[in-house]
Amino acid sequence: EVQLVESGGGLVQPGGSLRLSCAASGFTFSSYSMNWVRQAPGKGLEWVSYISSSSSTIYYADSVKGRFTISRDNAKNSLYLQMNSLRAEDTAVYYCARYSPAAIPYFDYWGQGTLVTVSS
Amino acid sequence: SSELTQDPAVSVALGQTVRITCQGDSLRSYYASWYQQKPGQAPVLVIYGKNNRPSGIPDRFSGSSSGNTASLTITGAQAEDEADYYCNSRDSSGNHREVFGTGTKVTVL
Fold first, then answer.
1. pLDDT per 10-residue tile (average), chain B, 109 residues
2. Stretch 20-79 of chain A: residues touching chain B, C-beta under 8 Å
3. Residues on chain A touching B98 (C-beta within 8 angstroms)
4. How many CA atoms lie within 13 A of B97 on its CB side?
5. Chain B residues in contact with A107 (beta carbon < 8 A)
6. Looking at chain B, which runs of residues are DSSP E strands?
7. Do the chains contact at A104 and B44, CB–CB below 8 Å?
8. Would you call A50 and B33 a contact, using CB atoms and an 8 Å cutoff?
């Protein structure tokens, strides 16, 4: 059974940093590209970042470029999101989501999410 | 940049059919995928590609596409289908960016 479990969320002050983790199990993690997607309270879904299976290709949404860093450790079956210079508008539930290996990929599995609250 | 627009809310009588639409330029180049999200839960993939359902998704869910519009149809809506639904596609502007629709709240009466 595919499982994605996020952790690392919490309350942080504006300008602060936080590192999110996503532990993967039930599939060959090193074969799949991964993403982070967030959802502000009461709002819709927003894609945040993408990393290829080998970490060779990385993309970010404009809203987080230069502040967030995605990474992975295939030996540990883990995905990470380092978030720096956090702003109030970064407050959201952060989901890790697996990318299907299809010609037109889609998010086939999601974790339960971890809440990040940026507030003084 | 590409945006995907959905109606904010629709309602459907129990057992009837409802269609949710998603409009955007990127849909001329890419199929949409659709996600169901119930309160306090993570999104769940319900339709991907031309009209494919993941294992475990009831066959009352179907997808279609024409021009710049993708549609998700629930035929014979059940009470458990009440949820938010989001479409998604790749941005067609050349940037590798995923775009989600604005979301549609489906109420089953």
1. 89 97 94 96 96 96 96 97 96 85 97
2. 35, 37, 44-47, 50, 59, 61
3. 35, 37, 47, 50
4. 19
5. 33, 35, 43, 45, 88
6. 5-6, 9-12, 17-23, 33-37, 44-47, 61-66, 69-75, 83-90, 98-100, 104-108
7. no
8. no
> What is the pLDDT at residue B65?
95
**Residue A3 touches partner B, C-beta closer than 8 Å:** no
What are the chain A neighbours of B102 within 8 Å (beta carbons)?
Answer: 44
Query: Contact at 8 Å (CB) between A73 and A54?
Result: no
Residue B51 CB coordination number (10 Å)? 14
Alpha carbon A114 to its chain's center: 10
Structure tokens at B69: 């519009």
CB B108 within 8 A of CB B12: yes
| Tens of pLDDT, residues A50-87 | 999 999 999 999 999 999 999 999 999 999 999 999 99
Taking one residue from A and the other from B, the number of pairs with CB-CB distance under 8 angstroms is 57
The tens digit of pLDDT for each residue in A9-58 reads 999 999 999 999 999 999 999 999 999 999 999 999 999 999 999 999 99
